[in-house]
Amino acid sequence: MMKNKDGKAHVKVFRFDPTQDKKPKYQTYDVPLEGSVLDALQYIYEHYDSSLAFRFGCSGASYERCGACSVVVNGQPALTCRRLVERAMTVEPHPKFQVIRDLVVDFDKEQKTGKKITSSVKISIDLDKCTACRDCVLLCPVKVFEIRKVGSKGKAVATDPASCCGQTCKQCATFCTNGAIRLTSVKK
């Protein structure tokens, strides 16, 4: 990974506590230009501000069924445990869900923010292989899939592909027992 002259990444982080703040703000921190976005957030928490709220459920070392750390990094949905730190980053909560505090959202409360996010993947579903097992619906941390009637049978449908955490997640494609789901990177 290339490092800038001072070996630091400049991370602009969304900060908001709806119980205390009237509107969101951003704070910028310098962190080591190495590791994952989750590493950067942990560095901020440990060295600058222990009030920063963010979620994680694994170390990112394997394909565990998680997704708790989904956010938006530089306009694209991603899992912080698998997205690498960049020289300059803006980290925001996933706009599909209501903010509890800072980067922590309520995955049970969807909202329409109007905030534009850029899809980093194209989701392809082979309907001949799909058995409507619902694994993709249950596994997807940001609720991209639904089972809908297609023809005379239920099939998985990507109803919100822009919210997909893409190549940093891939849980739908990894755990699809029939290999019906494929993610392809989209050029920025």
How far is it from the N-terminal to the C-terminal residue, by CA? Answer: 20 Å
Share of helix among residues? Answer: 10-25%
- Count structural domains: 2
* Total strands: 11
Find the CATH superfamily of the largest domain.
Beta-grasp domain
Helical segment count: 3
Poorly predicted residue ranges = none
- Which architecture of the largest domain does the CATH hierarchy give at level 2? Roll
Which labels suit this protein?
mainly beta; Alpha-Beta Plaits; 188 residues; two-stranded antiparallel sheet; 11% helix; five-stranded mixed sheet; Ubiquitin-like (UB roll)
Q: Can you walk me through this structure?
A:
The structure is a single chain. The chain is mostly beta strands and 188 residues long. The chain has two domains: 8-110, Ubiquitin-like (UB roll) (Roll); 121-185, Alpha-Beta Plaits (2-Layer Sandwich), CATH 3.30.70. Helices cover 11% and strands 34% of the residues. It has helices at 37-47, 135-139, 171-175; strands spanning 8-15, 25-32, 70-73, 76-79, 88-93, 97-101, 104-110, 121-125, 145-150, 153-158, 181-185. A five-stranded mixed β-sheet has the order 2-1-5-3-4, covered by helices on one side. Strands 6-7 form a two-stranded antiparallel ribbon.
